[in-house]
Design brief:
Strand order of the largest sheet: 5-4-3-6-7-8
Largest sheet: 6 strands, mixed
Number of helices: 3
Number of domains: 1
Shape: globular
Number of strands: 10
Distance between the termini: 18 Å
């Protein structure tokens, strides 16, 4: 589909499924090289990262564990600049290598909060993996270890990303038409 309408707003095709998968495969190569003997704990940030996480983690060749947290910072098409922990972490991260798996990093506030909290809980190493990164929206000063695709500061949907709960099931990624 070249375009879709969600909640009365038009979105145009931005990234085809094949482009997204290619980026994930490149990230997986780097993950496999750097973490093969570390038995990482992948922490998937719900809801939007579940599609990306499935594709990425099934390409990881070493031993690992997977768990989930639910953090919320968006309402509609805008970040609220307020991160809420809807579902927290129950695993012990002491002396573990932890990899946060996030769908998109824009302002960076959500991952800043999450990374600081996991470090304070005793993680040995905390890494960040994001499918999409908006460098022009990024407001913090920390390193992102694994970036799939850098994109402009546009609102996007598809491949797990939603607009008020809709469009997560789209295979491609679409950006809002201004």
């Amino acid at each position: 589909m070249e375009s879709v309408v969600v909640h009365g707003k038009k979105f145009n095709l931005y990234l085809k499924h094949e482009q997204v998968i290619e980026a994930i495969e490149k990230m997986a190569v780097k993950l496999n090289e750097e973490l093969k003997d570390k038995n990482p704990l992948f922490i998937v940030v719900l809801n939007s990262a579940f599609v990306f996480a499935s594709e990425l983690i099934t390409r990881f060749n070493g031993p690992c564990e997977v768990t989930f947290v639910k953090l919320a910072s968006y309402e509609g098409t805008q970040s609220t600049e307020n991160v809420r922990e809807v579902m927290g972490l129950s695993e012990d991260v002491t002396d573990r290598t932890v990899v946060f798996v996030e769908d998109i990093i824009d302002t960076g506030l959500t991952m800043l909060m999450a990374k600081d909290k996991i470090k304070a809980a005793g993680a040995k190493d905390v890494k960040l993996a994001t499918l999409l990164y908006k460098p022009k929206a990024f407001k913090h000063n920390y390193y992102i270890d694994y970036i799939g695709i850098e994109i402009p500061n546009d609102f996007i949907i598809g491949f797990g990303l939603d607009f008020d709960g809709q469009a997560r099931n789209l295979r491609d990624i679409y950006k809002i038409e201004e």
